[in-house]
Each structure stands twice: as structure tokens, then as C-alpha cells.
Specification:
With 109 residues, the chain is mostly helical. It has one domain. It is rod-shaped and about 90 Å long.
Length: 109
């Protein structure tokens, strides 16, 4: 199975901004519910509570799915070529080569 992503997804900052917007809307709906309670409009309260509950559930689902997509992207990126893998043998050889150059260059006495 091949999964391809076209373009980049939203940045974490954009996801946070959208989440804050959702919660801002929920707060406004909660304030409207409180005002309806004070005014004795109990029919409005039930609709507002449902809207708040639905908004919260949707926000949670979106964030969970975003996490799953990010995890999948990381897994795919880890399996694409060997460019992202650490080659410890090559690193060790390079360190040895550089140390040898330092030893050769520094031997004044």
C-alpha cells in the first residue's frame, strides 16, 4: 500500500489557532447558555449544551486524527531511503580520520 501526501498540512501553530477558535466559540455558546438560564429560557439551554458537547467532541476527534496523521508522516519519512538513518560506522571512520589529521598536524615537540 502506498500512501502519498500532496503538500504540507497545517503547522502546529495553525492547529493551535483553530483549536483556540473552537474553544472560543464554545465559551461564547456557554455564555449564551448562562444568559438563557438567567432569563428562564430553558429550551435554549438544552440546544446550547448539545452544541457545546458536539463542538468539544469534534475538536477532540480532529486533534486525535491530526496526531495519527503526524505519526504516519513520521513513519513514512523514516522509511524513505537511507538518507535519514545514522551511519555510525561512517561517523566512526570520519572521527578517526579527523583525529589522525590532528595528530599529524600538531606534532611539534
Amino acid at each position: 500500500m502506498t500512501v502519498r501526501f500532496s503538500g504540507e498540512g497545517p503547522t502546529p501553530e495553525e492547529v493551535l489557532a483553530a483549536t483556540e477558535k473552537f474553544y472560543g466559540l464554545a465559551v461564547m455558546e456557554l455564555e449564551r447558555t448562562i444568559e438563557a438560564l438567567r432569563a428562564g429560557e430553558f429550551a435554549e439551554v438544552r440546544a446550547a449544551q448539545t452544541a457545546i458537547r458536539d463542538l468539544r467532541a469534534t475538536a477532540v476527534q480532529v486533534l486525535e486524527e491530526r496526531g495519527k496523521v503526524d505519526k504516519l508522516r513520521k513513519q513514512i519519512a523514516g522509511h524513505v531511503g537511507a538518507g535519514g538513518a545514522l551511519d555510525l560506522d561512517s561517523a566512526r571512520a570520519e572521527i578517526g580520520r579527523r583525529l589522525a589529521c590532528l595528530r599529524n598536524a600538531g606534532g611539534g615537540g
